[in-house]
Amino acid sequence: MNILFVCTGNTCRSCMAEAIFNNKCDIDNVKAYSAGLSIVPGSRTSKHSAELVMNNLSMDISKRSAVQLTADMIKSADLILTMTNYMRDLISSNFPEKSNNVYSVSQYAGVNGEISDPYGGSIDVYSKTYDQLENIIGKVLIKLKEDKGIL
């Protein structure tokens, strides 16, 4: 199963979500990747995102380049989890055949709200986003296990 996390620039939220998910996922044949709706070519993971992932997961994503979301990525994803409802709606309207597989990450986890973009914020702002993602992804993993009959 391929899970695609989507944010705007793929330097903050979605790359942290990908790292958290892949670090915590213990479900066979389930892997996450991430992309951005509108990346800046050549951009790398934000300093604060990389620092938080290193400190919490011992994973180095500091040299990771942003990935532009493509139609092929959307078509090959089994589940698409966006950071906001707007992103969810944008993908669903452009790919109606995938609309049953596109959710905001909060919606899929059964949590209200959206994941705010920490871009340009302090380490404290990024830390709050990281903690929010970690909590929600824990709920995503439980839902996936329930849906697969593992729990």
From TrEMBL:
> Which terms does the record give in the GO molecular function aspect?
protein tyrosine phosphatase activity
Q: Which Gene3D superfamilies match?
A: 3.40.50.2300
Q: Per its UniProt record, what SMART domains does this chain match? A: LMWPc
Q: Where is the Phosphotyrosine protein phosphatase I domain?
A: 1-143
Q: What is this protein called?
A: Protein tyrosine phosphatase
Under InterPro entries, the record lists: LMW_PTPase, Ptyr_pPase, Ptyr_pPase_sf
